[in-house]
């Protein structure tokens, strides 16, 4: 028996395919791809048992497992679900819509405010001083700021270099720049468990990737081993940047 296939059915299939693909990318980034594959296999078996073979007893057992499993999945993947909602809310058009209704203007750093950060990173890179700097944008990082020491100072190249000096008590944590000021230092960032991160990248890079996956912030890393400057932004690394590339990346439109 043939059934009608309209434009709504095509859009429905397209949206489901997009949702599955995005979920796959999210699980792969978090190292949970095997769990995702297991869930798909379970759903396939459930559909075959209940819809194709029409096994009532086994089908009812699977139905109960599915009804309870939804709650279990929400608990199990709460970080991934939170990341999905944060990514959705931080999208350029969504952020513009929020600013339209709330009347808040978009916070963007100018060239004069970015250059002290760029020059400090270049200087620290030459001296192979490790650093991790997070620049907040539309999504507030109050939870991260609370894990460190409040500074609330103007953005200054010498201050940045002094904070990350090897003998400084705050050099191991992350610095957070918010509302065009150095808000805090020594902050603790969520560490990414993405298995695709190259082995040669250390804990600073994983922490930078972690904050970039749950916010729209730029995370700048200065490697203590090589002096190379990298940026993590929206779950992607930009490695071995020079001054011009770093400035361009930090001033790009969010």
Automatic annotation (TrEMBL):
A GO BP annotation: cAMP biosynthetic process
Keywords in alphabetical order: ATP-binding, Cell membrane, Membrane, Nucleotide-binding, Nucleotidyltransferase, Transferase, Transmembrane, Transmembrane helix
Keyword ATP-binding: yes
First-level EC class: transferase
Single GO term (MF): diadenylate cyclase activity
Transmembrane spans: 6-24, 31-49
Every DAC domain range: 78-243
Family: Belongs to the adenylate cyclase family. DacA/CdaA subfamily.
Task of the protein: Catalyzes the condensation of 2 ATP molecules into cyclic di-AMP (c-di-AMP), a second messenger used to regulate differing processes in different bacteria.
Protein name as annotated: Diadenylate cyclase
